[in-house]
Write a structure and sequence with these properties.
disordered N terminus, 36% strand, 10-stranded mixed sheet, alpha/beta, 627 residues
Length: 627
């Protein structure tokens, strides 16, 4: 007898003995009492009915097998005794199975494994009741058994899969991992595909290329830019075909690649083939066209009338000539020169080499030149610093000669001390220029040069640090500074290669417009009113400059600046620049480098400049004005 059966008998006997020991008056005992069944400790117990009470009924539940002797009970059964009743609790066995699948091209075999744990059940205890349903509940799990890898390997061998293509480690890992997996256990050798002969076009072919528009707003005037190439530009590379190499499937059979296809190409007008016909280049500037396997180039872009809603925006890599006007909200963008014979009204004109507007510029933006004017300023600053270092070396030699004559004047001090002394006294402007250069060569200016010039910019920033703060104390002598000059000259030449040539802008009349050029700006007509103008070199205004902001690097010349009660005009130039006009009205603001002033009363024929750190003026020569 098991421990559970022993415990159940003990409980039942104690219950019967306690019931017999209790003295209950006969008039209180029920006449009838139903028979009842219970499950305690996994054992079925029974109380027989009394009087006319009903006999107990046993109902087999799911997952439980109940037998009365040899007979299987499948429905509710009235019991007279539980002596011949046997109960068996079922269980769910664990699952460990696999499947091998060969791909359609017979280049790989996939092993898919599936593992499911089993479940052990036990009888649920139940109190005495007349109708007892036998139930079971989970009592534990049976772990899934690993799959024998030898079974999988043997099946692969029977299928004819070559042993050298079987990944035994993957088979073992998937079979012994006891978790679902789908892995490639055999891999053939893919055939090396052929390389078809092809024409690699490195230029756009559409008459216009759609612009990428960001955000939710759609520009209905954007028809895309006009395609264009310059003479000498590479248009296409012609690549000959290369045959492939055969592979092998998992059964060891050779798999042949397809045959390569030759290219279809011929050079038309404006196109020249070089390097044994493998490279096509443009002989002229124009728009490339590729039709029927023939590549050709058509020349420049001319707009016969206005740039308006019928033409949309105009964008071309070469020169653009507009015989009419540029209407409101339109854009003209060119890689070359832009010439507009009419006027520009609240539009945008962008050019890499220069802009000429014969008529008026009302509102809008006109810009010409490189996208980073600060880089041009950095090159000019380097040229000035070269002269500064020349002066520094001369002053150093002079000072050292004087101190040598006065023995012991700088006992224990090195050449670095003398250089720092000169940079703090006689040549105090030099460290300021180095600091300005360092700022110009950081961030956007560096990005404008590209990766090829990043090393040069880093060297220039290092040189700037050598003349800032306490760093000059570490300079060993004049020869070190001379080496710095030679290095600066080489790096300056490299930076000049990064810059495009200065781009100028010329306009007859402008109002409420924004103008920016890396070169000079000339306003040849009678008025510039409420504009924002930036020139990398010189700004010349033949007429009146009434209000707005006007900035140039080297000089600003005008006929009249400011007005009475019509806004404030602000003129700004570099530290070595000049500002001159025939007439300055009160309220005009001037800034030359860090020095600022406001004209308090009307003055005529004056030119302002900075000397020895002070803002000064002198008589202005009107011949310097445009017109």
């Amino acid at each position: 007898m098991s421990a559970a059966d022993f415990l159940a008998n003990l409980v039942f006997e104690e219950w019967e003995s306690s019931e017999k020991q209790v003295s209950v008056p006969s008039e209180l005992r029920p006449a009838d009492q139903d028979g009842r069944l219970a499950v305690m400790g996994g054992r079925l117990l029974m109380r027989e009915p009394r009087g006319r009470g009903a006999w107990p009924v046993l109902v087999p539940g799911p997952g439980v097998e109940v037998r009365q002797g040899e007979r299987l009970l499948t429905k509710p059964t009235v019991l007279e005794s539980v002596e011949d009743i046997s109960i068996t609790v079922g269980y769910q066995p664990p699952v460990s199975e696999y499947q091998l699948t060969v791909s359609r091209d017979k280049m790989k075999v996939i092993l898919k494994t599936k593992f499911r744990p089993g479940t052990v059940f036990k009888l649920c205890d139940a109190d005495f009741q007349q109708r007892l349903v036998i139930k079971s509940k989970p009592a534990g799990t049976l772990p899934a058994k690993p799959i024998d890898p030898r079974l999988v390997l043997a099946e692969l061998q029977r299928a004819g899969v070559k042993a050298e293509f079987i990944d035994t480690q993957q088979v073992i890992k998937a079979c012994l991992g006891c978790c679902d997996a789908e892995v490639v256990v055999a891999q053939g050798i893919q055939p090396l595909p052929p390389v078809d002969g092809r024409v690699e076009l490195v230029c756009q072919l559409q008459s216009r290329v759609p612009s990428v528009q960001s955000g939710d707003r759609v520009d209905v005037l954007d028809r895309g830019r006009f395609n264009a190439v310059n003479a000498g530009d590479v248009l296409a590379y012609i690549h000959p075909p290369v045959p492939g190499k055969p592979g092998m499937n998992v059964y060891g059979r050779e798999v042949q690649p397809r045959a390569p296809r030759p290219p279809r190409f011929s050079a038309g007008p404006g196109v020249k083939l070089i390097r044994d016909g493998s490279v096509a280049v443009a002989e002229i500037t124009g728009r490339p066209i590729f039709r029927g396997g023939q590549l050709q180039v058509n020349p420049q872009l001319v707009v016969d009338g206005n740039v308006d809603v019928s033409t949309g925006h105009v964008e071309f890599r070469g020169d653009v000539v507009v015989f009419g006007d540029v209407q409101e909200s339109l854009t003209v963008k060119a890689g070359g020169m832009v010439e507009i014979n009419g006027s520009v009204y609240h539009a945008t004109v962008l050019s890499d080499t220069g802009v000429k507007i014969a008529g008026k510029l009302i509102g809008g933006t006109v810009a010409a030149g490189t996208k980073q004017p600060g880089l041009a300023k950095a090159v000019k600053l380097l040229r000035r610093l070269d002269r500064d270092l020349e002066q520094l070396l001369a002053a150093f030699g002079q000072l050292k000669g004087q101190l040598k004559a006065e023995a012991g004047a700088v006992h224990g001090r090195g050449d670095g001390y003398l250089f720092k002394l000169l940079l703090e006294t006689r040549l105090a402007h030099v460290p300021k220029r180095w600091a300005e250069l360092k700022e110009l060569l950081t961030g956007a200016a560096a990005e404008a040069c590209g990766e090829d010039f990043l090393e040069s910019l880093a060297v220039l920033r290092f040189l700037a640090d050598r003349f800032l703060g306490a760093a000059p104390l570490e300079i060993k002598g004049a020869s070190e500074v001379e080496r710095y000059r030679e290095l600066m000259e080489d790096l300056t030449s490299r930076l000049e290669e990064c810059l495009e040539s200065e781009a100028d802008i010329s306009v007859h009349y402008c109002q409420n417009a924004k103008i920016e050029a890396t070169g000079s700006v000339a306003i040849t007509g009678p008025l510039a009113y409420d504009c924002e103008v930036v020139a990398g070199n010189t700004l010349r205004m033949a007429g009146q400059c009434r209000s707005g902001s006007y900035t140039a690097q080297s000089a600003i010349y005008a006929k009249t600046v400011g007005s009475q009660g019509m806004g404030v005009a602000t003129l700004v130039v570099g530290e070595e620049g000049v500002i001159g006009a025939r007439t300055f009205y009160p309220g005009v603001k001037l800034r030359i480098g860090p020095h600022e002033t406001t004209i308090e009363e009307e003055c005529r024929n004056r030119q302002f400049y900075v000397r020895d750190g002070k803002l000064m003026s002198r008589t202005y020569q009107p011949r310097e004005t445009v017109g």
